[in-house]
Design brief:
Elements (H helix, E strand, L loop, with lengths): L1 E12 L2 E12 L3 E5 L6 H9 L6 E6 L2 E2 L10 E4 L11 H11 L4 H14 L15 H14 L4 E5 L7 H18 L2 E6 L2 H7 L2 E6 L2 E6 L1 H6 L4 H6 L4 E11 L2 E5 L5 E4 L9 E6 L4 E5 L5 E10 L4 E7 L4 E5 L10 E6 L5 E3 L7
Parallel strand pairs: 3-8, 3-9, 6-7, 7-8
Antiparallel strand pairs: 1-2, 1-4, 4-5, 9-10, 11-12, 11-14, 12-13, 14-20, 15-19, 16-17, 16-19, 17-18
Helix pairs in contact: 2-3, 2-4, 3-4, 4-5
Length: 354
Amino acid sequence: MTEVSLRSLQKFYGKTAALKAISLDVNHGEFVSLLGPSGCGKSTTLKCIAGFEDITDGRICFDNKDISRKLPEDRDIGMVFQSYALFPHMTVTQNLAFGLEMRHVPKAEIAQRVARAMEMVQLTPYADRYPKKLSGGQQQRVALARALVIEPAILLLDEPLANLDAKLRDEMRGFIRDLQKRVGITTIYVTHDQNEAMTMSDRVVVMFDGEIAQAATPEDVYNRPASERVARFVGNANILDLPIARTDAQGTTVTLPGGATLQITRPAPSGQSRLRVMARPEQITLTSADLGQLPGRIEKRYFSGGHVEYSVATDCGPLFVTGPTTQHFAEGDSVGLCFDPARLWPLPDAESAQ
């Protein structure tokens, strides 16, 4: 069941288009991340959904009801901000109770709901503490509990982990996702961090320049990007521009420098003489120089804990490869690169210049 629908949503600031007729459906209980660089329109989209920004054109529907012109307090949403926005003069209990008091919920029910919310985010022992006495992660959990205690239909989060250090971000990433699954609330999450979007989401919506470039599962966005720009934004991407030897019903055969051929199991667009294909660093295997499909030379080697990263000079340009720590290639070594054609992804020609 669709919980949130955006239909041809437009937002202009003067003559500048922040959102260019975007459309999106978010299903009940789904966790959807809006991912993109600064200025792409992701936070503007969230603010329009919340009612903090008026839309220029289009429609926003919750459960098939048009709420485009409703005030934020009438939209049945919970909101978590990057800054937490906690009241510094209120305890944890008082921060959680405030929204319920504004809604004139009976005192006995407020006490019950606040207690449940604190237990949900594991903050019961901190009920009487003020925000300045809490860690960043604890403050973020208070902000989450405050958004959920009003029992909204939809939870909106705007870069909620941006102010935390790396270790806390990792912890809170798992905490938020587990909590969302337990509660089952429809969630829209804004981030510029690819790892957050990929690990937390049911679907990732990649945005550039006020438009949706791709909306798909994390696996599809990573392994089957809709464009070269998406491929390069989400993780490291090697793009090989290769001549087409032939195209038939079985796919497209391309030729590597040196003469080795690869059959891509997708036909190339008609009329093309070359095909741009994507290979992620972990989808390329290094071997001895005489066994590979493409010769190369190790330019840089970086130890990264669980794996090793290589920059390899080839006739296709520099390629980035990750391999196990059990491999012992050194800078300056001649190597061979091997490709699994089934894992190569052809990219549309339309964005090859971007």
